[in-house]
Amino acid sequence: MSSQPQSGLPPSLIVSSHDLARLEALLESPALKQHPAALALGEELGRATVVPPAQIPAGIVAMHSRVECEDELHGERHQLTLVYPHEADAAQGRVSVLAPVGSALLGLAVGQSIDWQAPGGRALRLRVLAVQPAGDFAHAAG
Question: Which of 16, 31, 41, 130 could be disulfide-bonded to 103 (CB atoms 3.0-4.6 Å)?
Answer without folding.
Answer: 41
